User: Fold these one by one.
Assistant:
Number 1:
Amino acid sequence: MLQIKSYIVLLLLLFSMCVSSQNSANDDPELIQNEINYHIENAQKNLENFSYYEAQKNLDSALKIAENTNNKENIAIIYALKGKLQLYVEEFEQAINSLNKAVEIQRTINDNVNLGKSYKIFGDVYAAKKMYYQALDSYRAAKSKFEEEELHADLADVLLAEGKTYLLLKNYNRARDVIEQSLALARKNDLLKIQSEDLVYHAIVYNKLKNNEKALTLANEGVAIAKQEGFLSILDKGYLITSDIYNELEDFRASRENLKYHIEISDSLAGIKRANYSKAQETQAKLDFALQENAKLSEDKEKAEDDKNLGTLISILSVALITILSLLTLSLYKNNNIRLKTNNMLHKKNGELIIAKEKAELASKTKANFLSTVTHELRTPLYAVTGLSNMLLEENPKPEQIQHLKSLKFSGDYLLTFINDILQINKIEANKVDIEPEPFNLKKKINNIILALNNSAQDNNVKIHLEYDTTLGENFIADQIKISQILINLIGNSIKFTKDGDIWIRIYKIEENDKIYTLRFEVEDNGIGISQEKQDHMFESFSQGSIQINRKYGGTGLGLSIVKGLIDILKGKIYVKSELGKGTTFYFEIPLEYTATEENLDNKTTYFSGNPDDLDLENVKVLVVEDNKINQMITKKILTKMKLNCEIVDNGEAAVDKIKTNKYDIILMDIHMPGISGIEATKIVRTFDKELTIFALTAVTIEDKMHEFEEAGFTDIIPKPFKQEEFEKKLYNALASKKGRSETA
């Protein structure tokens, strides 16, 4: 009897230890996360291998564990992968439902990394449904998140998807630009799979653009990488486009050979998909699962029969187990109360943070809307100020009036510069400045900047010297417009604060990593210099050296703030060295991608540089669509001076009626008018006249509305207030182009 009691006590101790160990293992967050990760990784491998049923099983298992532990991050990831699986099996509506669940959770917990991935899958679903513009919106949302988090591989992948969509929309130039960006990222980060696919789709674009030599080079490079790394899907696509290119080049033997490779790989891939996604496999898997369950039940039954003689012992253990469970329940109850209090506190703080975030976002939007409205309202009267001052200066004013008119013109130009600077700062602070890399000649660009600023330099008796490293190449891929803005601001600043002196501009390489060169740009002058105290705040908005300097030299104090913002966007750094009375040196370092490709001049705007007398202006008719009476008068005066006949209407409906019943050579279309806007009027005109030259006369910020202008079908844009010379050149250029087309026809 004593032996039995000892045996029971020992069993109780062992059982309680096992229960405690089991509970600890079940509650271990690291073990739970490892199990979830295991199922997710297996599901991703299954998707790559077309094993869709196995992928579904792994995702269901992972979701069950994640929901039991309320792991929101993993729940969202699993729903996103379910959406991807449903996309592959063409269950599009189910995919959208799954992705909506993922996005809702990821927005709530601010999981930007996985939110970007969900947006990317959303774009893939819309592209599969042939809803291409919705797909582009999703890809842009994904790009924004990947750029914020600096996820280069994901960014390259979504750029490729965006390029494919533009290809489907037959917007080949845009497709080429986006795929080039993806290819540059893939090469920089050694992403072989994306690089291979980029090259193949780049080849397809160039084939569509009728540049088969370039297309063949790109396709062969992509096929070589895919073949070496075993990327069968990409290799399949690569052989197909290569076959098409050879066929167009009339190399039929090579075309047949590549087509044969394509068919072999295509058949192989189709076989793999059929094998893994067949209903027979799904049924067999379910049958196997049922047999396993039956075997387990049989085993449990045999074990129960073997344990029948231990009934008494089990009863005793049950009492012990109830006691242990009671203690555990009490402990869990206390822990749960603590957890609830903590969660309530966290929810409250989270709610306060969400409200604060929404208020900040609302304030930012209000500021942006305010600036946009103020800009338009200021630019419209500025058109009258600058236009009238120019007209009065050209109409033989009295000698004593000339200086007043010049002062008026200067004030108008200064105010316009100030408005543009404020808008640029606002865009930089709101992260609305996009990087647009393109091939360009750096040395030529700097020489053009110096040429443009040379008149200002001569006014101050300043000589500008360029020292360009002779060992450094000239062609790079970067955002040349932003680099130009930086240099114009810095060189213009040096000219303003230097009298009877020199400015040196130096460019040289300080680091090279593959094709990415880190270049140093220096702008040195021997002007008035900057005190150490002012150097600490000089990159802040509205910062000037002093009140006396502001009065003497002028300026808004925004130039260096804009420079700092643009350099940060280009992932560079800026420094300053200066000493009062001895001069200042600004130097900044930015990464640029070296290229052997020369600057593409096909899409550059060319302005009229010939003689207007060579144009037949007698029969040219211009329609001015403008509701502001002062602006009507100024525009008519300028056109009359150019010897052009013009008619004026003050609303969009009248403009459409006039264009239908009369023949005009040029339309000058205002944007904001009573009734239908200039954009809507232009869209209507384009339904019956695709060739008519229509200029948008607009006081809005061009960059913010460029997409709308392109969609509406405007030929070009003239921002108000415009410089009369540029206005004349654009009109003469349009008339010269029209004359050239008619002569060719």
Number 2:
Amino acid sequence: MNTAIQSALDTAIDSLKQQGVLPQDFQNNSSLSRTRDRSHGDFASNIAMMAAKAAGQKPRDLAEKILAALPQVDVISKAEIAGPGFINFFLNDDQRFAVLDQIIAQTSQFGRSQQFNGKKAQVEFVSANPTSSLHVGHGRGAAYGMTVANLLEAIGWTVQREYYVNDAGRQMDILATSTFLRYLELCGQSLTFPSNGYRGAYVTEDIAQKIFDQYGNQFNRPVDAVFANVPSDAVYAAELDKDGNKVLLSGDKERHIDGLIHNAQQLLGAENYRLFHQTALQVILDDIKDDLADFGVTFDQWFSEATLKDKITEALEVLDQNGFLYEKDGNIWFKSTNFGDEKDRVVKRANGQTTYFAADIAYHLNKFQRGFDEVINIWGSDHHGYISRVKAAIDALGFDSKKLTVLLVQFVSLWRGSEMVQMSSRSGQFVSLRELREEVGNDAARFYYVMRKSEQHIDFDLDLAVSQSKDNAVYYIQYAHARICRLFNNFSSQLGEIRFEELNAHKAQLTSEAESELITKLAAYPDVLARAAQQYEPHQLGNYLKELAGQLHGWYDTHPIIKIFAEQPELAKARLLLAYCVQQVLKNGLSLLGVSAPETM
């Protein structure tokens, strides 16, 4: 119906162009939106205010000319001018009730569209280093990425969900060496564990123990040899502090761990070192996959960074052929400043090693070669400065960087009462996603992770997430769904089988203001869904469901159904129909957010 109104407006604008009221080159960038208050109509257009300057007229005067040029449209009962120049459209009753017919006919598909049918999008999200369990910050990226993908599919996109596995970088070497040191401890040796190694109990209990159980002392090496010629990671003052502890002055933690990695590789040999590396990778990756699957987050592809070796060579060759590489101080540099980056970037060091950035260039080359119409990267907010250089590389490779959308996800602060929990993946002192889910449940976690714009910080309130009150939005919405389920169970047990065809025959009985508002709210769902998807903002859908649940509760408390069935059966049936339609839309929306719609609570 909004398409019919927009078409009528377009016709009116074309007519005014022909009359010379508007210039021929006028571009109609106005919006047609549903009104919040039905006393202002069902739809409102700001076309008169948008076109007033081009016409050289006051908005209300132009609005009158637009109404005069508006062709007759069956769905419109009337149109009027409001405020500074809005044009409000009122639908006839048949059209207002049409949404109930659509919901009954389309059920779980109501609200979905094929607007972008034939278009392919890739959404890459989470992509956390496989060096520890996922923490609550990763959980936000997981919930947000999965929901964005769901929303895009709901408007017709074919979506590939992808996790980029960083299995070839230095962090994996630190994890492998940390595992080796814990293995040596299991062999009975004593050592001082590096302060910037991975210190969580999982390194010993889940990885090192697995290797020890399978191979025993086979890889035992002298601790002195492991620490030979390795710079200390700490320098202490000669005197002690008041508690008798050494005072740390300085240290070289990075050279210390790099020395340990080098010695571990030498002492174990390539094959055995790879055993530690791959065992650590697989244990952590399996844990991540299980954790995400239990959270309702799944991927179509787990892309290994380690497979990019040939692609890195290809990417650098393309950049070189296109004239965007040069050598300086033995390093190979990419001319990213040619594309607006703040400085050029090294892609290959003098020692022949390629950089992380070179791998990212190769990964995006691979993405664009796969033919996606839209590539969406969901990164942590600390990657903000990385966007310009990646887009520069895409353009330099000969692709269109406008097809890349980078969505940044801000950090999460987890609060227990008045205390904020600190997190550190190397020390192991962090709250994992799994622990959060166990405490508040999947539904609350999925819902509250997406209820703010991705670039806004979240203070996750544990007490609110588990409360059973109207202040807890996810509980409030789920309770609305369960309340309607209970209504239908009671109706069936008292009055027999429900036939929706019979209920639908009485929808004209829905004449109260609250019922009109509910119907209007239901009709707005497809537009809200489309807007949330196209703007990558799941919170718009969450807020809509919260408002719909609020209207349902208010209506349900004041509009009896079963109690009036004997005296007003037609009205009771109409209200049952409305309740069912609200239930279906709540269920549809919750499903897209990855939240369950319980039938009892």
